[in-house]
Design brief:
It is a single chain. This protein is an all-alpha fold. The chain has one domain: MetI-like (MetI-like fold). Helices cover about 75% and strands about 0% of the residues. The chain has 11 helices and no strands.
């Protein structure tokens, strides 16, 4: 076991403290400025007020942007859950020509720069599909998000499937269970937590996406990240942006905490 000297412990502790401060102090500044009475974000905050919270909750553009983000996120998550799980089972349970290539192609969208994916899909929608009369519109944005959300589900489910023992499924079949009964009562409960965790991460990734959305969103449709980005060019709207960002920060803790709990092995859970 590696033992560190007192000086090394203090030095590492200081580095960790600086890194955490660099990451989280800006978030606290956003939260504090959401209660700033001034229209433009300032520091230090001299006068506190809830007026911007009231305006944010009654703002129709904000509610429309949140609704769009939720709809797109749920749609992309549904696509990711189905396709990601099917591909994970195919790669784990079967051996076929090009297996490693399929694995690479599934993971590749999350590694590609978002601008590349956005431009590619935008060209496909505008230059190939629309000329033949196919208007993708809102559905195209869901498919665009689904391309990289699949990776979240795929990685979680595949990792769990690799740790499962086939003996339990074989015993279920030996006892007369049908393939569907074996999957529903034996297989799915064993990877259900990874399935749910992957879905939560996929939704969070879609909800937060900006670059791909810029290239694939229909005209006049704003998701919440697009709305925030557009408002950043208007200094007088900074307080509203801070309120929305604060709500997103607080809401982000929930899926992260749940996905971490679900991703643990049952024996490691409290």
């Amino acid at each position: 076991m590696l033992r560190l000297s007192l000086a090394a412990k203090i030095g590492l502790g200081a580095i960790v403290a600086v890194a955490l401060a660099f990451m989280y102090v800006p978030l606290f500044l956003v939260v504090f400025n959401s209660f700033n009475e001034a229209r433009i974000a300032t520091w230090p905050v001299t006068d506190f007020s809830l007026q911007w919270w009231g305006k944010a909750f009654t703002s129709e553009p904000i509610r429309a942007a949140i609704l769009n983000s939720v709809i797109v996120g749920l749609g992309a998550t549904a696509v990711a859950l189905v396709l990601g799980t099917l591909v994970a089972f195919a790669l784990q349970r079967f051996t076929f020509f090009g297996k490693q290539s399929v694995n690479l192609l599934v993971v590749l969208p999350i590694a590609l720069p978002g601008v590349v994916t956005g431009v590619a899909l935008n060209n496909t929608y505008n230059q190939i599909l629309e000329p033949i009369g196919i208007q993708v519109g809102y559905f195209g944005m869901i498919i665009a998000h689904g391309t990289f959300c699949i990776v979240m589900v795929f990685n979680n489910v595949l990792a769990r499937l690799r740790r499962l023992s086939p003996n339990v499924e074989e015993a279920s079949r030996d006892l007369g269970a049908t393939p569907w009964q074996t999957f529903r009562l034996v297989t799915f409960p064993q990877f259900r937590s990874a399935f749910v965790a992957g879905g939560i991460l996929a939704f969070a990734l879609s909800f937060d996406e900006v670059v791909v959305t810029i290239f694939t969103a229909p005209p006049g449709v704003d998701t919440l990240p697009l709305w925030i980005m557009n408002q950043m060019a208007r200094p007088n709207e900074a307080s509203l942006v801070n309120v929305v960002a604060t709500v997103v920060i607080l809401a982000s803790f929930i899926p992260v905490w749940v996905s971490q709990r679900l991703s643990r092995d049952p024996a490691d859970r409290d």
